[in-house]
Please model this.
Amino acid sequence: IGAQAEIETFSISLFSDPHLGNPIHNYRFSKAVEWVNKNQEDRNIQLVAVLGDIAFHEDSLTWAKNELDNLIVPYAPLNGDNVISLGSEKYFAEIFGPHISSLASILENMKINPRPVI
Model:
């Protein structure tokens, strides 16, 4: 009988549509960042994916970036439809673009799509 392959498990934490800029949403987001950092080792969290509509304006996107930079694991921010409909995709690219580019060293082919989302 052949040897069984060793299976490595890991977790990805998802932050979905945080809509930051509202004090209650900001508080919950900060608590989520704290939770990931506190539980990263026990749950083997390897990545946080922030699934769109992080915030809608430049100041809130900057706040989000600063908060996410407190994570002890890599994070991948994704743009959302509300950000685009409000015309804030330029700010998203300016604020998160360098971070997304840096992810290419750990997540193969990670980059911002050069075409607009439809």
Summary: The chain has a mean pLDDT of 87. The two ends are 53 Å apart (CA to CA). The longest strand covers residues 45-51.
